[in-house]
């Protein structure tokens, strides 16, 4: 993956430079390299070598990073799962990861996970080529270098945060790792950071709490649609926003430079795209291994897009979350984007519920900060802002929506929690 090479090189050249800030204080490049070398020796004693598979999952992000660097040094693949998984689920996931990596030998350097339809997280295998080749080009857009400290406010089991961490270290920047998302902890850390990798709800929470005196100059944002007013608030604080679109399976696909039209992306350099029946297909050297591809090398995760006349993309959402109601197809992302504009709404999840006559109806679950909007206010807002098919028929409020490791709302967990009553909600 080259991360171990870069860490050891910087440890030799600048041993006292801080590489990682964690819960237990700063870790220099020399200390990080030393811990990784000791871990690599332990793995070697355990019979791990080139082509091996190492589960580096850990609640402590610094320990996870040490394990990943050690595995990379040995040309073994690091398996990065979620530390909160139940033991039996984790065992199934690790077994699935090892099987998925088997055909790739020592070319596999990293295995992360996406949600699986069978209840077992789906492993995504990355080769060194697919992982590191985007770093130099991404740096042209993100501009992270040795003088930066990059805030990573979410768990490294989220590929968005893991990518941001490894990219920063490769570029010689320090990373400030939070073991889990906390708005207050993120704001406190931001006072000592120059850049941050976030999903849009995290950026919204941070800019709402920041004053005008912030050292943050860059926010790299992905994972969901970014509201224009959030970007405007960031801009007033002197924070430039670089937004990109991608997926764990496809890696980087498209990027939006600061100042470009909100919600529209241009293909990332080196990525070829095409749109078939409104669905995006991508071809690049960044694709994960083992993907089902067309004969000419294109792959898809079934995200729906609109291709603009100037070649830019507007990402609409994923087919798998589409709601079929009364003969119309509703993409949750678009409705969620509108609902997040409501005062007091931190985030929103939109799902479908079975209906005898309409097939499905739209259900909205709002994560609220304090007092929730009234039912009449919600209905009026929906009537003003949404077409009829998109308007939620059922409204709930909750104090905290379930989230994935990358900080995105876990819509499937919302759906399941409403079905079995495990999600703590109140009817509006």
UniProtKB/TrEMBL annotation:
Q: Which residues form the AMP-dependent synthetase/ligase domain?
A: 97-277
Q: Which InterPro entries match?
A: AMP-bd_C, AMP-bd_C_sf, AMP-dep_synth/lig_dom, ANL_N_sf, ATP-dep_AMP-bd_enzyme
Q: Which domain of life is it from?
A: Bacteria
What's one Pfam family the UniProt record gives for this protein?
Answer: AMP-binding_C
* Residue ranges of domain AMP-binding enzyme C-terminal in the record: 335-408
Q: What is the designated name of this protein?
A: Class I adenylate-forming enzyme family protein
């Amino acid at each position: 993956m080259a991360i171990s090479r870069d860490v050891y090189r910087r440890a030799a050249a600048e041993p006292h430079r801080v590489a990682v800030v964690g819960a237990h204080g700063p870790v220099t490049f020399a200390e990080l390299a030393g811990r990784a070398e000791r871990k690599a020796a332990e793995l070697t004693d355990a019979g791990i070598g080139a082509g091996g598979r190492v589960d580096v999952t850990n609640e402590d992000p610094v320990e996870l990073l040490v394990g990943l660097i050690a595995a990379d040094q040995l040309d073994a693949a690091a398996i990065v799962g979620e530390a909160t998984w139940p033991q039996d689920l984790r065992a199934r996931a690790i077994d699935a990861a090892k099987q998925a990596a088997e055909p790739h030998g020592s070319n596999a350097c990293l295995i992360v996970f996406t949600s699986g339809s069978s209840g077992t997280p789906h492993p995504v295998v990355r080769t060194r080529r697919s992982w590191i080749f985007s770093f130099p080009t991404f740096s042209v857009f993100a501009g992270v270098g040795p003088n930066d400290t990059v805030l990573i406010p979410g768990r490294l089991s989220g590929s968005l945060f893991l990518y941001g961490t490894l990219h920063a270290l490769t570029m010689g920047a320090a990373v400030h790792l939070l073991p889990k998302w906390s708005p207050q902890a993120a704001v406190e850390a931001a006072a000592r950071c120059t850049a941050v990798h976030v999903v849009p709800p995290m950026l919204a929470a941070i800019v709402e709490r920041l004053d005008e005196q912030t050292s943050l100059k860059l926010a790299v944002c992905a994972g969901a649609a970014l509201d224009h007013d959030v970007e405007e608030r960031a801009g007033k604080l002197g924070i430039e926003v670089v937004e990109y679109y991608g997926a764990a399976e496809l890696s980087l696909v498209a990027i939006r430079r600061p100042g470009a039209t909100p919600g529209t992306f241009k293909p990332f350099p080196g990525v070829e795209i095409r749109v078939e029946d409104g669905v995006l297909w991508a071809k690049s050297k960044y694709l994960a291994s083992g993907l089902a591809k067309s004969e000419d090398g294109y792959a898809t995760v079934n995200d729906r897009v609109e291709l603009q006349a100037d070649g830019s993309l507007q990402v609409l959402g994923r087919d798998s979350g589409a709601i079929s109601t009364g003969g119309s197809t509703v993409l949750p992302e678009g409705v969620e984007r509108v609902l997040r504009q409501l005062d007091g709404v931190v985030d929103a999840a939109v799902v479908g519920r079975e209906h005898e006559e309409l097939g499905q109806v739209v259900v909205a679950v709002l994560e609220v900060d304090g007092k929730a909007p009234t039912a009449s206010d919600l209905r009026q807002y929906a009537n003003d802002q949404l077409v009829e098919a998109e308007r939620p028929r059922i409204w709930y409020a909750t104090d905290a929506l379930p989230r994935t490791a990358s900080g995105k709302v876990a819509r499937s967990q919302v759906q399941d929690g409403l079905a079995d009553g495990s999600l703590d909600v109140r009817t509006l």
